[in-house]
Amino acid sequence: MNTGPAIPVLGTENFYADLLAQIGGSRVTAASILSDPTADPHEYEASPTTAKVVADSKLVIVNGIGYDSFMDKLLGASTKPDRVVINVQDILGVKDDVNVHVWYDPATMPKVADAAATALAKLDPQNAPYFAAQKAKYLTALRPVSDKIASLKSKYTGAPIAFTENVAGYLTDAIGLKVLTPLSFMEAIESGTDPAPADVAAERDLITGHKVKALLYNSQVTSALTEQIRDLALRNNVPVVPVAETIPPPFKTFQDWQLAQLDDLEKALAK
Length: 271
Fold this sequence. Notes:
globular, Rossmann fold, 2 domains, 11 helices, about 15% strand, 8 strands, about 50% helix
């Protein structure tokens, strides 16, 4: 294996940085920009430090779909002829109006892993076999996640749940769960506006009327209203399953994080 300086790579969100670290192994140094579990990614402001990290990176993964549009300016400010930018939206071929949290779709990360391994092999051709082997390990580590999804699907298809915000919608769709929260309620929460009183009443009724098996709560971007809904669920013994928009601190990898959330979901649905 060729030694030499490690390749600076950047995953705008920390789960893409984690993917690059797992696939690049000892050949990369991976950085991320969005990794604060308490910060709202939609309100991110770039700093000079961030600009430097972007400028130095040879490979960058962005989510696209307007989720990390601040990157357009940062990438434009430091053009590098040999820099590779992987835009996940382009890889998935999705429009701007889809749920932006595409990393919750079980089909997404394998596609990003393919693109990352290909890009790394292009930047460091001598180590192409190493990147291919690392990618195989990454995909193997994803397998328990898809197995868990399949197992939940076989047991809980059609189970009713509520959301504060549509963060894990791709995941709950894959399991076959039924989201009863009004769409307009979730859209208002995501855009930071107040949901209509009728929607708030409908959401509260799902909980107080025990019409749902669990509340999936965005633990990262919260508001007075979403915290009230969470507290209402706790008071009414409706299990609350926190879901985040970036890998929270206790978890080492994307796979560990996803499995932990699925375990929490399973405990909630089993009640």
